[in-house]
Write a structure and sequence with these properties.
The complex is a heterotetramer. Chain A is mainly alpha-helical. Helix content of chain A is 64%, strand content 1%. Chain D is built from three helices and ten strands; from the N terminus they run ααββββββββββα. The chains are: A mainly alpha, B alpha+beta, C mainly beta, D alpha+beta.
Chain lengths: 595, 260, 251, 263
């Protein structure tokens, strides 16, 4: 970067400081090109979607714990016929099987594509990553804005699908053909997905260019905070894994709207009559294309969370991360491997021994880098001086939760044990342990950690702890029983488990899970309160409230448009904590040591 | 008030390219995955199919060859536009750009006629083998002259190699009760046409995208030349990369769909 | 489920329909003639296997004796239940040239003992429907029309009722619309959707009666699930009762 | 109804070879438990010992943790062992060592939204021809060809699979419409049923298997009433199997309508 650019920064900041040339409300907060504002837009939108997706699940939890009983509070609302031909989720206050399927499909879709990915990548990636690399903004600010404004309509189409004729998608978030081609409601889902995929592509290109081209002087790749590395790998996964799903989505849309038979085999006989499709297609083709995206997607969900946890742990143990380089290599290897394990979701589709051998071997191999990252994070605790603030509580809670999630992946990744566990509650327990107490804890840690940077004020610690402890306990009471239910042989996506012996025998667990879920909902109230009230009432902070070392803490809190007052330079590794012979127990990357 | 972004115009010291070029390469990587998925699906469907038509039997190879030539020429003119701009010849560069744009439009027009023909060409499958023009057949192809609830008047295609005597063929009347299936050559006709329309359609959308971008750079976007010459040339170069990719996809599509 | 909102909706819907129908007062021509008769089978029915009620424990309990598919049923004297008898115009069209508003009462279909009651019924296009589940098991009711919009919904609980407003039922004449339950594949019902109210379904003794027919020449059409359809020319005069017995041949 | 879930762990295993899968699952879980507990102890120890104390500073030196390397290598070795020693042989046996065809019971399974149609070949041991055009959802759900002599003695039952203990069962799975997944938890057998393909699978009820009825589940979301796609496997003795077979022999029923219209 030339000197001219740093001059520009200074100039940009002057504009801001004087306030005369301030952008109008719309350009500043709605159609903003500032990565921080876009990051916050993503964060808030994603949190709203997460809350909505969680609400859908609470309705399903009612049905599972009390099959056939009138849903309290919302039952009558869901039974209202809004217009002729409207697909009701419930009748006479009781959830319908098709309503249950719609809620299930939308819960999965919303949580993954509208909640966690936008929060982890769109929110944290956008807000934190340019700051951490000392950049004034993203490489393409307008593209960044567009990415959000393509994401939002995609999400709104998904939500609106509940009110469209035919209702919301009912074929699961996996949308297996031929069911998804036959079922109502899928078209809106596909259109929504195409918007979301486009948004992700725009975002990921922006991220990669920014990380490669816009690092501050001195900030070599191996001086990057681990979070940036995680985002870097994630962006590649999004870039390369999403397009096949887009192709598959287009094909499924063609099957639905143009009567093609990409995924429709010959001779289908649906509901008492021959189906209209010519046939000749392959249902397995959809599964391959879908999982080719959806397995890397798992790492899209988990890597940013690992990144956040690494930041928070390094900061709060007051010592450098243990095995930083091996973590980076592990993350890159993880990203690469995630492209060649997808078919372990398809062991039960009649896979031959050779192919299954390949995929279970790659699946076992991919567990190794996860173990390395996890081990490195735990060993990082050794010899530290651990501060138990709210972000740290969430970050360290992430570790055992992710460990359970990862370990329970083992029996699922082996074909023989998968015979019994495939498509049971064990699977649900497994991936929720990775994503819910795993990723979401990472996200909470990130929110508490970077909140002062975004707003200039701290979140309340007491409320934070009031949020953490019940959430932590409830999460385990929700997902651990699911592992047992799956072991007992309860099939997932079952509207009324009571007609099965495994369901009847584990009904008590269902009740326990549901109660825990509702208690957990209440436990989110302190967080919501804390989140909004701290914006005005939180303790004011200077630029570096956590005594942290990475570059984002060199910018003012909140950082102005253009981020840094003077162009930062990186002089050392990211986590120089408790250096010997210094009074402070941290040495930020940008600080020039006076000799 | 925009923040100054480094490497917007000048190449990055390490990678040696500017932001835009890196981004376009990444974009093309994702495009490779998109079309790669479609080509894989095509291979899978074709290898699994009991029968798969030869493209040259049912598609117009001459038109597609013409289109191939059109697209390749447009790629050449795109490079010429960039070269002229590099030499500082703004007006010549624009002319080449305009030629590229018109060639892209020609491509779409030709494609439109190809599509239109398919939608007016029908195939009839009979319930039982039926005598048509002295042969017992289960299916015939041709054009519909008249359609009612009870019957269709159908003008069969001349047999292969008898195109000159097309006049000999009279329309025949087919009762609705005889028809097992009646379909034009739209995407619903068979998996071949599903693949054909989806892939060429998606490629066509890419061509339209190219037209919009080139049109912008030719029209309102050209002002940038006077403000920041290098920036404008970069944009032309990046658009060119994209355009070559669109061309390349067609070069794969042409043999895959029309020839083999 | 008669909650207030629902009633308002159906009220609005029926009002809209009435308006759309244009001159609602200029309702279709009604007459005083009657056609009656018996439908019977010409030959012996193919014996059918009993329904596999064991598929669902509830259904088995509700039907301790073996049950035949309703379409196979025949009375000892050879007369047929579940034949749908209806009037066509003299040139064989469903439309009699005059518009009839559907009756206000809904066509009720009950899911009882894992069978549809009635198995065969007629309705005037646009008539409302009421679907009831009196079984303590989950049913889904799936219509498979070719000229109308399809519906497909579940009734997982005993006593559930769903009122279908006019716009949700069958609005185009179609003989017959097949309705089935996907959970219990044997459950099927057939609805004859007509643009006029001149139809009947045979019951005990294969008897049918079509009343209030205006004088004129018609075709008397008969449809049965298992037997070949038939059409017979008839002529009726005001106040007259025409008797027509029809024998259906094997399909 | 047999008791399928005696406790909060795996359902009873009534098959001859299911123990192999159970062993694998149990071994992995013991390993997971050891790993998690060992790791957890270290984790909690760190949290307690290295909590922030006034006047105490973190030690920035990174320890040479040989333990972690050993742990990682240990995990890798263990994974290799269960992969090569357990999972792959069991899977290969399941795929490549079907029982003797002549000694097995053969059943065709036709899945549809939302029922399992079980098609038995009858006394002649030969499946009758089937064709879509004969399908009658009430009377002939698998579309048996009435003109095929082999079809006359075939038995079709919906949602009820009868097997004899000690006798291997070979199933040919197919689907009419969408993807289903055939799962008998007590037999430790599961297979997706994808339309357009026939999937041969097999299992063997143990000779001392509990008699009675157990769940068959559709394990793949197949539509709005997916949950209702429950079948039952009846484990019979040869005698009770014969009794059931005899009850099915009455293939023709009176079609007298009086019963239905008696009120």
């Amino acid at each position: 970067m030339s000197a001219g650019h740093s001059h520009d920064h200074g100039h940009a900041h002057d504009d801001h400081a004087h306030g005369h040339h301030e952008l109008g409300f719309i350009r500043k907060w709605i159609f903003s090109t500032d990565h921080k504002v876009i990051g916050m837009q993503y964060t808030v939108t994603a949190l709203v979607f997460l809350f909505f997706g969680f609400t859908l699940m609470m309705i399903m939890r009612w049905q599972l714990a009390n099959p056939g009983h009138v849903i309290p509070f919302v039952g009558s609302m869901l039974s209202k016929q809004l217009y002729a031909g409207y697909m009701n989720l419930a009748t006479e206050g009781v959830l319908l099987p098709e309503g249950y399927n719609a809620l299930g499909a939308m819960h999965g879709t919303i949580m993954v594509f509208l909640g966690i990915v936008p929060l982890a990548v769109g929110g944290f990636g956008n807000f934190v990553m340019p700051l951490q690399i000392g950049a004034p903004d993203m490489a393409f600010p307008k593209l960044n804005m567009m990415s959000y404004w393509v994401f939002l309509p995609g999400g709104l189409i998904m939500l609106a699908s509940f009110f469209m004729p035919g209702g919301a998608a009912q074929s699961g978030w996996t949308s297996y053909a031929p069911l998804s081609v036959i079922n109502p409601g899928q078209t809106a889902w596909l259109v929504g997905m195409i918007f979301l995929i486009t948004s992700s592509l725009l975002g990921s290109i922006n991220f990669i260019v920014t990380i490669i081209h816009m690092r501050a002087p001195g900030l070599t790749m191996f001086r990057l905070p681990f979070f940036v590395w995680a985002q870097f790998v994630t962006a590649f996964l999004l870039l390369l894994a999403f397009p096949p799903l887009e192709a598959a989505g287009v094909m499924q849309l063609m099957d639905r709207l143009a009567g093609t038979s990409f995924f429709m085999p010959s001779g289908l006989w649906v509901s008492g009559k021959a189906a209209e499709w010519v046939g000749g297609g392959s249902p397995l083709l959809w599964q391959h294309l879908f999982w080719f995206l959806a397995h890397p997607e798992v790492y899209v969900l988990i890597l940013p969370a690992m990144g956040i946890v690494a930041e928070v742990i390094a900061n709060n143990t007051r010592k450098p991360l243990w095995g930083y380089r091996s973590m980076v290599y592990a993350a890159a290897f993880l990203g690469f491997m995630s492209f060649i394990v997808w078919a372990h979701h398809m062991f039960m589709t009649g896979m031959s021994t050779k192919i299954s051998t390949f995929f279970q071997t790659t699946t076992m191999i991919i567990s190794i880098p996860s173990v390395i990252i996890l081990t490195a994070l735990v060993i990082s605790l050794w010899g530290g001086s651990i501060r138990f603030n709210t972000p740290m509580l969430f970050a360290i809670a992430f570790l055992p939760m992710f460990a359970i999630g990862g370990l329970t992946g083992l029996p699922l990744g082996l074909t023989s044990s998968d015979i019994h566990l495939h498509d049971t509650y064990y699977v649900i327990g497994h991936f929720h342990y990775v994503v819910a107490p795993g990723t979401i804890f990472g996200m909470f840690a990130g929110i508490y950690y970077w909140y002062p940077k975004a707003t200039g004020r701290m979140m309340n610690e007491t409320l934070g702890k009031l949020h953490f402890w019940p959430t932590f306990i409830c999460m385990n009471c929700i997902f651990f029983p699911m592992l047992i239910q799956g072991m007992m042989g309860l099939s997932r996506r079952t509207y009324d488990p009571n007609i099965y012996q495994a369901g009847l025998a584990s009904l008590k667990l269902h009740k326990m899970i549901s109660w825990s879920a509702w208690i957990m909902a209440i436990a989110q109230l302190p967080f919501i309160f804390n989140f909004f009230v701290s914006m005005f009432a939180g303790k004011k902070v200077t630029e570096n409230p956590w005594d942290s070392t990475t570059l984002e803490w060199a910018a003012p809190s909140p950082p102005p448009h253009g981020n840094f007052l003077t162009e930062p330079k990186a002089h050392r590794d990211p986590y120089v904590y408790s250096p010997p012979g210094r009074k402070d127990d941290f040495l930020p990357q940008h600080v020039v040591l006076e000799v | 008030m925009d923040v100054a972004i480094p490497c917007q115009v000048k190449p990055h010291p390490v990678t040696g390219i500017a932001n835009g070029k890196l981004a376009i390469w990444l974009f093309l990587a994702s495009e490779v995955m998109l079309f790669g998925a479609l080509f894989s699906s095509y291979i899978l469907l074709r290898t699994n199919a009991e029968t798969w038509p030869r493209g040259h039997d049912i598609l117009s190879v001459p038109l597609a060859t013409l289109n191939t030539a059109v697209l390749i020429t447009s790629s050449v003119t795109m490079v010429m536009a960039w070269a002229q701009l590099m030499m500082g010849n703004f007006s010549k560069g624009r002319k080449y750009l305009a030629v590229t744009l018109s060639l892209a439009c020609v491509f779409l027009v030709v494609k439109f006629f190809e599509y239109k023909d398919k939608f007016h060409h029908y195939q009839v499958w009979f319930n039982t083998p039926t005598m048509v023009a002295g042969h017992e057949v289960t299916t015939i192809t041709g054009h519909i002259e008249e359609k009612t609830d009870d019957f269709i008047k159908f003008l069969p295609d001349p047999p292969k190699g008898h195109k000159a005597e097309a006049g000999h063929h009279e329309p025949i009347k087919i009762e609705t009760s005889q028809i097992k299936r009646l379909s034009n050559y739209g995407p619903w006709h068979s998996n071949f046409f599903a693949v054909y329309f989806t892939m060429t359609g998606l490629h066509g959308l890419h061509v339209i995208g190219g037209i919009i971008v080139i049109g912008y750079l030719l029209g309102p976007g050209a002002k940038l030349w006077h403000r920041d010459r290098q920036f404008y040339i970069n944009r032309i170069e990046n658009t060119g990369l994209y355009w070559h990719f669109v061309d390349l996809v067609w070069i794969f599509l042409f043999p895959c769909l029309y020839l083999i | 489920m008669n909650n207030r909102c629902w009633n308002t909706t159906s009220l609005v819907a029926s009002l809209t329909l009435a308006l759309l129908a244009g001159s609602a007062l200029a309702d279709g021509k009604m007459g005083t003639a009657t056609v009656k008769g018996k439908i019977s089978a010409d030959g012996k029915p193919t014996p059918g296997a009993p329904i596999a009620m064991g598929a669902d424990k509830f259904c088995l309990a509700a039907n301790p004796k073996p049950v035949s598919p309703q379409g196979k049923l025949i009375f000892a004297d050879g007369t047929l239940p579940y034949a749908f008898v209806y009037i066509k115009s003299a040139d064989g069209k469903l439309d009699l040239g005059s518009k009839y508003t559907p009756p206000a009462e809904a066509l009720e279909i009950d899911q009882s003992g894992c069978m549809y009651k009635p198995h065969v019924a007629g309705m005037v296009a646009g008539q409302t429907m009421k679907i009831v589940n009196t079984d303590d098991t989950n049913h889904n009711i799936h219509s498979l029309p070719t000229k109308n919009k399809s519906f497909n919904f579940s009734q997982p609980k005993k006593g559930m009722t769903k009122d279908l407003v006019s716009a949700e039922t069958f609005n185009n004449p179609e003989v017959m619309v097949h309705i089935k339950c996907d959970v219990h594949p044997w459950m099927s019902a057939y609805i004859g959707v007509l643009p006029h109210p001149f139809f009947d379904t045979t019951k005990k003794g294969g008897e049918f009666t079509i009343k209030n027919l205006p004088a004129g020449k018609y075709k008397l059409a008969v449809w049965h699930e298992e037997w070949a359809p038939q059409e017979i020319d008839i002529e009726v005069k005001d106040g007259e009762t025409v008797e027509k017995d029809v024998k259906l041949a094997k399909k | 109804m047999g008791v399928q879930n005696p406790g909060y762990w795996l359902p009873v295993d009534l098959s001859k070879y299911g123990y192999k899968i159970d062993d694998l699952i149990n071994i992995i879980h013991v390993f997971m438990l050891i790993l998690f507990v060992g790791w957890g102890i270290f984790f909690v120890y760190c949290l307690v010992r290295f909590r922030a104390k006034p006047g105490h500073r973190a030690n920035p030196e990174l320890i040479h943790a040989k333990g972690s390397k050993y742990a990682e290598i240990g995990v890798a070795i263990f994974e290799a062992v269960i992969l090569l020693g357990f999972s792959m042989p069991v899977w290969a046996a399941y795929k490549h060592a079907p029982p003797d065809k002549d000694k097995a019971q053969h059943v065709r399974v036709v899945a549809q939204q939302f029922a399992w149609n079980f098609h038995y070949p009858g006394p002649d041991g030969i499946f009758g021809k089937t064709d879509q055009k004969y399908i009658d959802e009430a009377a002939n759900p698998v579309g048996l060809d009435p003109n095929d002599p082999h079809a006359l003695d075939d038995i079709v039952d919906v949602n009820n699979l009868h097997v004899i203990r000690g006798k291997p069962v070979m199933l040919r799975l197919s689907s009419k419409d969408v993807i289903h997944s055939f799962w008998i938890p007590v037999m430790r057998v599961k297979q997706d049923v994808i339309p357009g393909t026939v999937f041969p699978i097999w299992f063997e009820p143990a000779e001392n298997a509990t008699l009675g009825e157990f769940d068959i589940t559709c394990a793949q979301l197949c539509g709005n009433n997916h949950f209702k796609m429950r079948g039952a496997v009846h484990i019979d003795t040869p005698e009770s199997f014969q009794k059931w077979l005899d009850s099915k022999k009455v293939s023709t029923q009176p079609v007298n309508a009086e019963e239905e219209f008696k009120e």
